[in-house]
Write a structure and sequence with these properties.
This protein is an alpha/beta fold and about 450 residues long. The protein has twelve helices and 14 strands. It is globular, with a radius of gyration of 22 Å. The site of pyridoxal-5'-phosphate has 14 residues, from helix 5.
Length: about 450
């Protein structure tokens, strides 16, 4: 498939008969999950950049990138080459917290990048924050687990955690306790105690969400007030936030809100964890979304586009003894860490941060234009290539998603009635134009 000439071609509107057969085969035994049963990518058929072939032979334009995990789209040649090199060695996963893997005589000139190279690279691209340690893991949720464990270990007397309305941090028992986006993630599961929720302020003019009082004081400063507050600052183990909320609806916070949060964290020496699992790795046009807000976290969680989970942060926050964090495959996922390492290199070498900024502006301008023509689009928002539209109702949102897929455009919902756009970081003007055109038609279909 030639990316520069590829076009969307829908022969059988998805899901076609083969897609349905694959979905039925899969869901017959797989535990229920949030399967997008309409879009069944054929992993053996041609695909390049945002274009892929589905089970019925349709050529689709994928602006969901597997929730950003395919940050360089399909079949990027550099990643394919690295994966092939790594696949020639077995085990591709080993017990990496017990055994260190080398790749040739000199770590400065490895034949393949090892987990240690990825950790060095992560410290390089988080240099503005002065981090000193990294720990890899299997998933984003584990990266969150490890970050909060670091904080509980570093502040043994502190038992409160602070999270935000609309937050999503994963589905493991610790991480799910911090979620505030949808009830389904938490309902009836036991949770870590003493988690406080604060408003996630996205107000563009005067604050109406409850974060800021009329007298200018913030909800968090009132919470920590030594006389009238609910908790003492020393009792707070950590604050965790997404610099741009993902699952909760691609909500971009007000700058002053994050700055006030960071100011209070610094003043009271409370560790601040930025969860960059969805917003990081260049998605917003900077390596980390938090950079747009002039905020320095103490710990950061990374995942998705990195292909493994990572907890990165201030060296003094990591427990000194071994056995305190993850085990077995945590650090030993050799193939995925090598692909994650090359992903960072490609983003650097191909100037993809700049591309994400430029193309993000183009995409946002385009969806804003569409919103003027389709009155049920009630909001548009985004930062770089992390953009969304919100429709008037959830049913309408679902109709737009279906109509877009029927026309060959793969999109994903988020929040309760929003649609997110997260194309590959190297998306081109032509591909954005194609997506906007298909979206325009889908919005008309759903009117
Ligand atoms: C911000 C954020 N944190 C954590 C997670 C959990 O990551 P994982 O699904 O890899 O466990 C996600 C996944 O969507 C996420 O978007």
């Amino acid at each position: 498939m030639n990316r520069a000439r590829a076009t969307v071609r829908v022969k059988v509107p998805p899901p076609g008969p083969r897609a349905r057969r694959w979905a039925a085969f899969h869901t017959a035994v797989a535990a229920p999950a949030t399967y997008q049963e309409g879009f069944i990518w054929d992993r053996t058929a041609p695909a390049i950049g945002p274009f892929c072939t589905d089970a019925d032979g349709n050529i689709l334009l994928d602006f969901a990138s597997h929730v950003g995990t395919a940050a360089l789209g399909y079949n990027h040649p550099v990643l394919l080459e690295e994966a092939a090199r790594c696949a020639a060695v077995d085990p591709d996963r080993y017990c990496g917290t017990d055994f260190i893997g080398a790749a040739g005589p000199d770590p400065k000139r490895p034949t393949i990048p090892t987990p240690a190279h990825l950790q060095h690279k992560l410290l390089e691209i988080t240099a503005p924050f002065g981090f000193g340690r990294a720990f890899l893991s299997n998933s984003g949720a584990e990266a969150v687990e490890n970050a909060i464990k670091c904080c509980y270990a570093a502040r043994p007397a502190a038992r409160y955690a602070v999270t935000f309305d609309g937050a999503f941090h994963g589905r493991t028992l610790g991480a799910l306790s911090l979620n505030r986006s949808k009830a389904v993630h938490r309902a009836f599961f036991p949770q870590i105690p003493q988690v406080l929720s604060l408003p996630f302020c996205t107000c563009s003019a005067a604050c109406r969400c409850g974060w800021e009082e009329a007298d200018g004081t913030s909800r968090f400063s009132r919470l920590l007030d030594p006389e009238a507050g609910l908790v003492q600052a020393e009792e707070v183990a950590f604050i965790i936030f997404e610099p741009v909320q993902g699952e909760g609806g691609y909500r971009v916070p007000r700058k002053a809100f994050l700055q006030e949060l960071a100011r209070l964290a610094r003043e009271h020496a409370i560790p601040l964890i930025a969860d960059e699992i969805q917003s990081g790795m260049g998605r917003t046009g900077r390596w980390w979304a938090v950079e747009h807000f002039g905020v320095k976290p103490d710990l950061m969680t990374v995942g998705k586009a990195l292909r493994v989970g990572a907890t990165v942060g201030r060296a003094d926050l990591f427990p000194a003894e071994g056995s305190r964090m993850g085990g077995t495959w945590a650090e030993g996922n050799a193939l995925s860490t090598a692909v994650g390492y090359r992903t960072i290199e490609v983003i650097e070498r191909e100037g993809l941060l700049q591309n994400a900024s430029r193309m993000g502006e183009r995409l946002l301008a385009g969806v804003r234009d569409l919103a003027k023509r389709h009155s049920f689009v009630v909001d548009t928002r985004g930062l770089g290539l992390m953009a969304a539209i919100e429709t008037d109702t959830r049913a309408r949102r679902d109709r737009v998603l279906e109509a877009a897929l029927a026309r060959g455009l793969v999109l994903l919902g988020c929040g309760l009635k929003a649609i997110r756009f997260l194309p590959p970081l190297d998306v081109t003007e032509r591909e954005i134009g194609m997506a906007l055109d298909l979206l325009d038609k889908a919005l008309r279909d759903a009117a």
